[in-house]
Design brief:
This protein is α/β, with parallel strands linked by helices. Helices cover 35% and strands 19% of the residues. It has 20 helices and 24 strands. The longest helix is centred in the C-terminal third of the chain and has 18 residues.
């Protein structure tokens, strides 16, 4: 472990007025040997550190307690008062960057100049505006660098901190924090997407399923921006599914040899994937309208496979390629490197035709060497109608997607505002960095164990049926519960019990992931089976939070969406067959 004391040059907040144009963070050669011993003079690299949220909340308390302080540029110095409102942006940056996580990977540039200077730059995280330098106070802060295996951590140490000041900042910040601006209606959509970027919206025609996808994409832009006001924001694409689709040629593309030479004709999905890669800091929404007009397992087979290859690596989510690179048999005679087929190189050029110059080279190399994979900012939403013209979903599809029903209609809605009042969304709200249960269990063991106990009781009822859930569903249940923990206030701004937040999330994910898989005639799904499942769900929820939970909300009971759905399924069974789908 190596400690770096923060002096004036590296401090954002200074104890006295002085001029300084520094925006980077200088390092010693001793620290360089610890974190990147192979880096040589005149080179630079990207490097990731593990940061801890508690360090920065405490740092903010120290900074407020020590103010008035000074922030300086190369030509002037600005005094900062002790008013906690001044520090709200830094507090919100902490909340946005770390989200519900106690620790987070922070990636910056490490530069070793020819003159021997070593420093970190590009310190601001683009999506959250978090900047480690903003929490460094002259002569009051120190950074401890440590390396265990391949993990490098930075702990921010402080001379003293005032707990009451931290609480005061938090109180001020809560009133303006983005996460509390969302109407309760949108929370399940946002947290479902963050848990798995593949969502099915089911419901009767005309309830606004495709509209809400467009509005979620719109909410990723500032309200006064051109993209927010545009008919179709650039991070949104709608593809109308056709009944004659039986392979992926319309979405991904195909190789045509009409001209005598192979030419890849790219589909709309592949084109949108490339656009998402070009703007990785913005969530991109693809809406497959009327998704089940054709068999999803056939025309979307590659995506259904690749979505399950997602892995969290160094703070990012990576997948296998949805289109593999194709190479010539002969290597480059000068370099000895493998060379892509002409049609594959031409495809990359077409896909990146609108890409900025600073990004096109890196993306071209990436696509040539690794193929074209799914970027972590791509969100796929399918709208679903169930009638005589559509196909039902197999468990392969349902197991891979989150499902939300949109059957409730408010005929007075949408008459006072042109756009949905969602609030500002970004990567931290919509794009999860955790993919499996193991990614969150260590940090949220208590909440996860509650969820596992509940899920075990459900699985006991499902034992011996084709509806029993396994590890994939377990992982998504844990992710959904954890992603809901920050949404701990009601519409009036009153704080909710954590046990209720967990129970509410389990109720919703039961509807999304368990009940959506149940269908069949009385030989597969009996009334006794549904009643036993209903009793188990109700008891499980009330064991977590006293409730009670019922199918309808009353003055004394909370509404359970899964109990309401089971009541609907029991009624449908009277015809001899039942299903989750209306």
């Amino acid at each position: 472990m190596i400690t770096k004391r923060i002096h004036s040059q590296d401090a954002h907040y200074k104890l006295s007025p002085k001029n300084s144009g520094e925006t980077s963070l200088n390092l010693s050669n001793e620290i360089l040997q610890l974190i990147a011993p192979s880096l040589t003079k005149g080179t630079e690299t990207s490097i990731s550190f593990i940061l801890y949220r508690a360090d920065y909340l405490k740092a903010l308390g120290v900074i407020v307690n020590c103010s008035p302080l000074y922030i300086s540029s190369s030509s002037s110095s600005t005094v900062v008062s002790s008013d906690p409102n001044v520090f709200i942006k830094d507090f919100q940056a902490i909340c946005s960057f770390f989200g519900p996580n106690e620790k987070k990977t922070y990636t910056v540039n490490l530069i070793y100049r020819k003159d021997g200077r070593i420093y970190l730059n590009a310190l601001e995280d683009k999506s959250s505006k978090f900047n480690i330098r903003h929490f460094l106070l002259e002569e009051r802060s120190a950074l401890e660098f440590d390396k265990i295996g391949n993990d490098i951590s930075i702990r921010l140490k402080l001379d003293a901190f005032d707990e009451e000041k931290i609480k005061e900042i938090a109180k001020q910040g809560d009133s303006t924090s983005t996460i509390e601006q969302y109407f309760p209606f949108y929370r399940p959509y946002i947290t479902a997407i963050k848990s798995k970027p593949f969502l099915l919206l089911a419901g009767i025609s005309g309830t606004g399923k495709s509209r809400i996808v467009r509005e979620l994409a719109r909410a990723c832009w500032e309200a006064d921006s051109d993209e927010f006001k545009a008919q179709k924001p650039r991070n949104f694409e709608m593809v109308q599914v056709k009944p004659n689709w039986h392979d992926s040629s319309e979405l991904i593309g195909y190789v045509s040899r009409v001209s005598g030479q192979p030419v890849f004709v790219a589909g709309d999905f592949l084109k949108f994937v490339a656009r998402a890669w070009e703007e990785q800091e913005v969530p991109y929404f693809l809406c497959l309208d009327e998704m089940n007009l054709a068999p999803v397992e056939q025309y979307f087979a590659e995506y259904l496979s690749v979505i399950e290859s997602r892995k969290a690596t160094n703070g990012k989510v990576v997948t296998d390629p949805i289109l593999n690179p194709v190479y010539k048999k002969e290597r480059d005679p000068k370099t000895g490197e493998i060379v892509p087929e002409d049609w594959y190189s031409e495809l990359i050029s077409i896909l990146l035709a609108g890409c900025s110059e600073e990004k096109v080279f890196a993306l071209t190399k990436q696509f040539e060497s690794d193929g074209i994979s799914i970027p972590q900012n791509l969100i796929v939403v399918g709208t679903v109608n169930m009638d005589e013209t559509t196909f039902s979903f197999s468990r392969k599809v349902l197991d891979r997607a989150m499902t939300i029903e949109m059957n409730e209609v408010d005929l007075t809605g949408g008459l006072t505002n042109r756009y949905e009042q969602i609030g500002k969304l970004g990567m931290n709200e919509l794009v999860g960095k955790a993919v499996e249960g193991v990614d969150v269990y260590e940090y949220y063991e208590g909440a996860c164990n509650i969820a596992i106990t509940y899920l075990k009781s459900i699985n006991d009822v499902l034992e011996g049926t084709p509806f029993k859930v396994a590890y994939r569903t377990r992982n998504e249940v844990l992710l959904y519960v954890v992603n809901n923990l920050p949404y701990n206030k009601n519409a009036e701004g009153e704080e909710l019990h954590e046990e209720y937040v967990i129970a509410r999330a389990l109720d919703e994910i039961t509807n999304m992931k368990v009940l959506s898989r149940i269908e069949g005639d009385e030989t597969k799904v009996s009334n006794a089976f549904l009643e036993k499942l209903e009793k188990t769900i109700k008891q499980g929820l009330e064991n977590i939070f006293e409730g009670p939970f019922e199918k309808e909300e009353t003055d004394k009971a909370f509404k359970s969406v899964s109990l309401a759905k089971l009541d609907e399924m029991k009624k449908r069974l009277s015809s001899g067959y039942t299903s989750f789908w209306s």
